[in-house]
Amino acid sequence: MKWERGSQYAETERALDYLNVEEYERAHGYHIAAIVGKDGLIVRRYDVGRHNAVDKAIGAALLMGVDLSRTFLLLSGRISRGIAMKCVRAGIPLVVSKAAILDSAIKVCEKKWFGCSVLCNKCSC
User: Fold this and answer.
1) How far apart are CA 122 and CA 98, in angstroms?
2) How far is it, in rounded angstroms, from Cα 122 to Cα 37?
3) pLDDT in tens, the chain (125 residues)
4) Do residues 76 and 100 lie in contact, with contact meaning Cβ atoms separated by under 8 Å?
5) Residue 57 contacts by C-beta under 8 Å, 6 or more apart in sequence?
6) Rounded Cα distance, 92 and 69, in Å
7) What gap in Å lies between CA 16 and CA 74, rounded to an integer?
8) DSSP assignment of the chain
9) How many Å apart are CA 94 and CA 117, to the nearest integer?
10) What is the DSSP letter of 68?
């Protein structure tokens, strides 16, 4: 994804709104994974497991023919090593979450030159 210097934070911060859907606000019983491009939301999927939500979102985007190298993954749950590796394998250059990033995922980021970001100022973490 080609970002202008300084625009990445603003774009990803605005994208947090894609996680604030009515169903999530009522129940908090599942995770949301969204594939976001420069023009906004491409696909959003839900599941009780964060890994399953990620699989569904990536799969739906691939079925739509989306160039994942020009997107980022937005996640409501923690970023684990497994989720980071799924993004690396799919060619997604960045994962953004409103929850924590696990130490094992940071190691993947360092090893694979992959980007992770945790933004919490607009959510109820």
Assistant:
1) 9
2) 20
3) 444 444 555 666 677 777 776 666 666 678 899 999 988 899 999 898 999 999 999 999 999 999 999 999 999 888 888 998 999 899 998 888 888 887 878 888 777 666 666 655 444 43
4) no
5) 33, 34, 35, 43, 44, 45, 73
6) 5
7) 8
8) ----TTHHHHHHHHHGGGG--HHHHHH--SEEEEEEETTEEEEEEEESSHHHHHHHHHHHHHHTT--GGGEEEEESS-B-HHHHHHHHHHT--EEEESS-B-HHHHHHHHHHT-EEEE--TTS--
9) 8
10) G
What tokens appear for 120 in the block?
A: 């919490």
| In contact, 54 and 85? CB cutoff 8 Å | no
Q: Are 103 and 10 in contact, with CB atoms under 8 Å apart?
A: no
Query: Tokens representing 104?
Result: 């094992």
pTM as predicted: 0.78
